[in-house]
Amino acid sequence: MLRRLADGERNLTELAAPLRMSFPAASKHVRVLERARLVRRRVVGRTHLCRIEGKPLADASVWLEGYCRVLEGNYQRLDHLLDDLQAE
Amino acid sequence: MKTIGALTISAPGDRELVMTRIFDAPRRLVFDAMTKPELLKRWLFGPPGWAMTVCEVDLQVGGKFRHVWRNDDGREMAMSGVHREIVPGERIVRTESFDFGCPTQAGEQVGTLVLTEQGGMTKMTLTVLYPSREARDGTLATGADQGLAAGYDRLADILAGL
Fold first, then answer.
1. In chain A, what percentage of residues exceed pLDDT 70?
2. Are B67 and B79 spatial neighbours (Cβ–Cβ below 8 Å)?
3. Phi and psi at residue A40, in whole multiples of 5°?
4. Contacts of B72 (CB under 8 A, 6+ apart)
5. Domain made up of B17-22+47-161: CATH architecture
6. pLDDT on residue A70
7. In what order do the strands lie in the sheet with B2-4?
8. In whole angstroms, what is the distance from residue B32 CA to residue B152 CA?
9. How much is the pTM?
10. Rounded average pLDDT over B140-145
11. Would strands B2-4 and B16-23 be described as parallel, antiparallel, or unpaired?
12. Is residue A68 classed exposed, middle or buried when 0-12, 13-18 and 19+ CB atoms within 10 A define those classes?
């Protein structure tokens, strides 16, 4: 979802469709991102427009944490592999 | 700076990410696990739900590498590049770019891997220099998304246990 928003402002329907999410599910996801201050939403008539919150580095800590978590998952697998290789 | 598990990551300057981690194994073994295709395929899966399907590494200066990952839902992601510098067991500098599957990371980045051994343990320092600040922050945004997804998974587990 953030990847899509990296290209610019999108409405909820545009965000939900490629992820095969329902409108309420997408709205819920956006709410979490809003709370994490990664996304800002504005409502124009019946359209909910979302964009990535400005100041990229202001949120670096939240962003780093997510990225770190993904990498650490891989490195923990590497730990196990190294254990196996040393046991051989 | 952020630490999750044993991994520390920081974003110094505008275009860099620096990752450090200790592995409880000799340096030579860590180097092998990070450069030999048959070993890389056993751990470098990417975010949850992804697996590495193609891994080619021509480990010499000017030699190319290519990694392809595939998601459970059929999406694919591919990264390739060229080795610029190799000190066996110690150091690799290579260019890296996503061929497809990762639109936020446009352009070529340079990855520098340094391994140092201390008392049988190996310290990894991986520095990635992105072509622009937007590309660097785009990478972090991807991770943030995945991190939140992982958070949801944990929440689902907690809720299931109530």
1. 83
2. yes
3. -120, 140
4. B49, B50
5. 2-Layer Sandwich (3.30)
6. 81
7. B2-4, B7-10, B16-23, B121-129, B109-118, B91-100, B76-87, B64-71, B50-57
8. 35
9. 0.70
10. 66
11. unpaired
12. buried
Residues of A within 8 A of B47 (CB-CB) are 70, 73
Return d(Cα B23, Cα A79) in angstroms, integer: 7
Q: In this structure, are strands A39-44 and A47-52 parallel, antiparallel, or unpaired?
A: antiparallel
**Which amino acid belongs to residue B134?**
E
Residues in chain A closer than 8 A to B25 (CB atoms) = 82-83, 85-86
- For residue A81, give how far its alpha carbon lies from the nearest alpha carbon of chain B (Å): 7
Q: Report whether A48 contacts A12 (CB < 8 A).
A: yes
Whether the Cβ atoms of residue B36 and residue B28 lie closer than 8 Å to each other: no
Q: In what order do the strands lie in the sheet with A10-11?
A: A10-11, A47-52, A39-44
Q: Using CA of residue B15, residue B19, residue B20, residue B24, what is the dihedral sign?
A: negative
Residues above pLDDT 90, as percent of chain B: 52
A3-20 tens-digit pLDDT: 677 667 889 988 888 878
